[in-house]
Write a structure and sequence with these properties.
Layout: E1 4-5, H1 11-16, E2 22-27, H2 32-47, E3 52-57, H3 62-67, E4 75-80, E5 83-89, H4 94-99
Parallel strand pairs: 1-3, 2-3
Antiparallel strand pairs: 2-4, 4-5
Length: 103
């Protein structure tokens, strides 16, 4: 499965109404740690079709960043059944990101 780009227009459908757990990566193109984490997130998306992976560019979607109180990037939030179940900030190794789904 590929990474889904999320905007305020498709957030509800792609994240809140998803029948799979959803990892949302809040990022920005100018952020070094975000670029490092992006490779990890892309790998997970291609290897784990049972999980949905989304990215939100905080510069293009400031409303969503504000709605979820994203104060630093990268921030990863896992949603299950429309609810936030796990949240971390900062770049992480692949296994740590996968472990976020075990909530």
């Amino acid at each position: 499965m590929s990474v889904v780009t999320v905007t305020k227009d498709n957030f509800e459908q792609e994240v809140l109404k998803s029948d799979k757990p959803v990892l949302v990566d809040f990022w920005a193109s100018w952020c070094g740690p975000c670029r490092m984490l992006s490779r990890v997130v892309d790998e997970i998306a291609s290897e784990h079709g049972d999980k949905k992976i989304c990215k939100i560019n905080v510069d293009e979607q400031p409303e969503l960043a504000q709605q979820f109180n994203v104060m630093s990037i990268p921030t990863l939030i896992v949603f299950k059944n429309g609810n936030t179940v796990k949240r971390v900030a900062g770049a992480r190794p692949k296994q740590d990101v996968l472990n976020l789904f075990n909530s």
